[in-house]
Design brief:
single chain; mainly beta; 2 domains; four-stranded antiparallel sheet; 17 strands; 12% helix
Length: 213
């Protein structure tokens, strides 16, 4: 009983913490939110980060159009979506807290061409056959449908590429908070399973006693 109680306390502490922080530099950042459901852009970023945003661009796969979000201007979209990548241009550097409650990832990309995506996971994913490319994770198509992945680290290393099964790849992991360009020869679906820790506890109304207050 004592052991079980300690485990429960550990989970509660885990839910209230952050997986880490994402440093958004002045200029362009390739971003993917750590979320399990759609969320309002301004609400997710928070007042301080929004104050530094110049604009956000997303490539809508449904109609192959770029769409823009500005705080006091054009808003062709209003919500961030899970497993979607975004270009964020910052007027000033800001730090975004990343949730630690979304351990699973699920990416579903249709058709050939370039796709801007991300894992939306709070867990770093290794780009090999024991983690991200594990055969049981691939639900649609095959790994060979993915030609290459490009990641962009605005804080230092810049563009890095990963070609599945190639040697000397520069991009070795997909990290929380970062967006990625996938080049596809055909559709692919990758689902890493895992647990959404938010689902372990009941929702809490504003101001009511709860685990997140």
């Amino acid at each position: 009983m004592q052991t079980i109680f300690k485990c429960i306390l550990f989970v509660l502490c885990y839910v209230q913490s952050y997986a880490g922080q994402l440093n958004l530099v002045q200029g362009w950042n390739l971003f993917s939110p750590v979320i399990s459901a759609e969320v309002d852009v301004a609400t997710h970023l928070g007042t301080d980060v929004v104050s530094g945003v110049n604009k956000i661009w997303v490539f809508d796969q449904a109609d192959s159009q770029w769409k823009k979000w500005e705080q006091n201007g054009t808003q062709n979209f209003t919500n961030f979506k899970p497993s979607q990548g975004y270009w964020i241009k910052m007027n000033s550097a800001k730090t975004l807290n990343l949730s630690d409650s979304v351990s699973r990832f699920s990416i579903s990309l249709s058709g050939a061409g370039w796709k801007l995506t991300g894992t939306s996971s709070s867990t770093q994913r290794v780009l090999d056959d024991t983690d991200f490319f594990k055969p049981s994770n691939i639900t649609t198509g095959t790994k060979s449908n993915l030609t290459k992945i490009w990641g962009y680290d605005a804080s230092g290393s810049g563009w890095r590429k990963h070609v599945p099964d190639a040697a000397n790849n520069q991009l070795l992991t997909m990290d929380p908070g970062y967006g990625y360009w996938f080049k596809l020869g055909d559709s692919i679906g990758i689902d890493g399973g895992g647990v959404d820790l938010n689902s372990l506890f009941p929702p809490v109304c504003p101001g009511c006693p709860g685990f997140n207050n």
